[in-house]
C-alpha cells in the first residue's frame, strides 16, 4: 500500500478558488444577529521552519475524493512508518504537515459526556461474578470433546507429514535456495552422470529417469503436505469464499454511503468552509503585509537617522542625537539584523557618536568661556540654561565626567582677566599713568594713590563676588541635572525590580488565559461558522505584533520629532529626561554621579580659592614697595574692613573658609602693626625727651575722650571742627570723680593706646600682636619716664635745672593714671582674644607691677629728699633759746614747701601717707640728734626747750591742709630715763 504523508488539495476548476477548495457561497439575505464568538488559534499553524504555508496547502478529505492517483503518492507508507533513522517516526510523520503542536495538543474532554469510573460497572460485576466463577470451574472439569478429537487428529497428521517431509533433502528447504547458484545447481542436478564421453548410453538414460522420478517424488510429498494443510483449513477457506459475495455487496453499499457522505462533505466544504478559509487566508496575508509595511517604515526611519542627527546637531540637541543613534543601533541589532543595505550603518553611527562626543566637549568649553568672560553686571547669572542642561545631559550620558575640569581651567583664566580688566578700566581715568610706558599691572597699581588703588581693589572684590555668584548658579544647574538623572535612575531601577517578577506571571497568565478562552470559544461556539470564533484572538495577536514592531520605530521617529520641535525648551528637556530613562544602562553608576556632585562642590571651593589668590596678588603687587606699610591707621582699617567683608561674603556664598587672603592681610597687618608701633614709640620717645614735667592744661577733647572711656566706649571719638562755643581747657583731668594732674605726654599716651584699641576693633586678627606692641609701648613709657625723672635724665635732655618734688609728684600721678587704665585695656583686649590666647594677658600684670614699683620708688624718693634735708638741718640743731629754734623753723618751712608742691598733685590719702613717712623720718633723725646731745625726758630745761620745738613742729604740720587729723605721735623721740 502506498500513500502520501500529506495530501494536497487538487484544483477543481470552476468550483472554488484558485486553490481548488470549495468556497462558501454568500447569502444575499441580511446576516442574522449572532452573539460574539471568541477567537481560536489557527488550526493549521505555520511549519517549524518559520515560513508558514497557506491554509490551502493543508490536507483536504473532500478535494481528494476522486482525483487522487498513484502519481500523488510520495512515499511508501510502511517505509515511512518503519524508518529506523527516527526515534519518533509517528510524531514526525504527523507533525511535519500539521505542526509540532499536533501530537502534543491536549483535547479538552467533552462537557456533554460524563466521567465514567469503575463505580459505574459495580452493579454489573456483582451480578455476573457468581456465574463467571461457575463457568470457569466447569471448563476446568469437563473439556470439549470436539476440541480433544481435533487436537489428536491434527497431532497424528502432523507427525505423519513431518516424517514424509524429512525425506526431502534439506537443500530444497533452505531459505536461500536458488538454482542460479552453480553450487546449488550441481548439488540438485549432478552433471557427472550426463557428461560421459561415449554419448548417451542406456545407463545415463536410466539415471536421468531415476533423478526425474526422485524429484517428482519430492514434489508429490510437498504437494501432499500442502494439500493436507489445505484440507485442515478447508472449512475456513470455503466459509471465506461463501462470504465473499456478501462482502462485495457490503462494500458496494459502503461505497455508495461514502459517495453520499463525500458529496455532502463537498457541499459543506463549498458552503461553509471555503469562505472562512478565504477570510483566514486574507487575514494572514493582511498581517504579513502590515508586518512588511511596518518593517519598511522602520527601514525608512532608520534611513533618515543621519539627516535627523545632523538636524539635531545643528540645534545643539546632543541628547536627542545620541538617543537617536543608540535607538537606531538597537534597531539594527534586533529588528533589522541581516539587512544588506544597512551593513555599514552601524560603524557609521559609531563614528558619528565619537564626533558628537568631541563636539559636546568643544561646545561645553566654548560655553564655559563665553559664560565666564561676559559682563558680570546687568546680565542673568546663568547663560542659556537649556543649552547648559542639554550639554550636561549629553556629557553624563556619554560618561564624559571630566567636563568640570574644563570649566575649572576656563574659570582660572576668567579670574585673571577680571583683575586685568579692573586695573585697565581704572588706569584709563588716571592721566598720570602712561600705559604705553608702564605695561605691567603691578607697576601700574604701584603708581596709583591709595584712594585710586583702593577703589580698584573694591571693584575687584565686587567683580569676584559676582563671579562666584555666577559660578555657583551654573554649578547649581549642573548639580540639579545630575540629581534629576540620579533620581530618575533610582526610580527606574525600583520599577524594574518591582515589575520583573510580575511581568513573567502576567505574560504566562495572559497566554494561558487567551488559549483557554480560545478553546472554550471553539467548544462552545454556536454560530454558523467556527472560523468566526478565531477573529478576536487573531485581532489581539495582530495588535500585539504591530505594537512590538512599531515600538522601536516610534522610538526612532521620536528623534525626528525632537528635531522638528526643538524650539520648545521645556518639551526638549522632558524629551531628554525620557531618553535618559530609556538608556539607563549607558549612564554612569551612582558612585560616579555622587563623585560628580562632590567635584562640583569642590569646584566652587576652588573658585573661592582662586578669587582669593588673585586678590592676594593685587595686595602683594601694591605692597612690594612698602606702600601698604606706610598707610595711616584709618586707611589700613578701611583696607582691613574691605578685605574682611569680602572674605566673609565669599565664605557665606561658597561655604568654604579661605586662608590665603586672610594670611596676606595678616602679613600686611603685622608689617603695619610694626610700623604703627614704631611710629608711636618714636613719637612717645620724642615727647618724653621734650617733656619738661610741668602740669599741662587738659583740652576739652581729651576730657571727652576720658569720659567716653568711662562710659565703656574704648574707641577714638570723631574729631570736631573748632567752634566759637568750644570749652576752655581745664587744669585737671577728671577720671571717675578724681583729679589727675598730668603732663601733655600722658594725654597723648592715652590717645595712643586708644588708637591701639581702635585698630584691634577694626582688625581683630592682629589683637595678639597689637597687645604685645602696646605692652612694649607702656613699658617704654615707664622705663623712659623713670630715666628722665628718677634718673634725672631730664636735666641733660630737656635742660632742667633740677628735679623738683613737684616733678616727682607729677610723674607719680601720671603713672597712677596709666595704672588706672591698664585693667580697662586688659578687659578690652580680652574680648578680642580667643580663649587659647588669654596667656598673653599676663603682660598687663607685669606692667602693672612695674608701674606700682615705679610709683613706690617716686614716693620713696620724696621721702628721701626730706630725709636728707632732715639729716642736714638737724645735724646743726642745738637745744638753746630762743624758741622755737631756727632749725625747727627751717624744717617746718621745708615741710610747707613740700606740702604746697604735692598737695594739688597727689590725692589726700596719698599725701597723708607720704607725710606720715616723712614724719617718721623726722622723728628718727631728731631722736638720733637728741641722743647725740644727751637730752633726755627728765623734765629739765633742755627737755622743756625740746618740747617747745616739737610742739611748734606739730602745730605747723597739722596746720597744713589735709593734715589736720594727722597723728604725729612725737613722744617716741625720747629715750627712757637712765
Automatic annotation (TrEMBL):
Residues 1-58 are annotated as: Disordered. It is found in: Golgi apparatus, trans-Golgi network. Residues 20-29 have a biased composition (Basic and acidic residues). GO terms for cellular component: cytosol; GARP complex. The keyword ATP-binding does not apply. It comes from the Eukaryota. Residues 738-867 form the Vacuolar protein sorting-associated protein 54 C-terminal domain. Belongs to the VPS54 family. Component of the Golgi-associated retrograde protein (GARP) complex, also called VFT (VPS fifty-three) complex, composed of VPS51, VPS52, VPS53 and VPS54. EIPR1 interacts with GARP complex and mediates its recruitment to the trans-Golgi network. Interacts with VPS51 in an EIPR1-independent manner. This is Vacuolar protein sorting-associated protein 54.
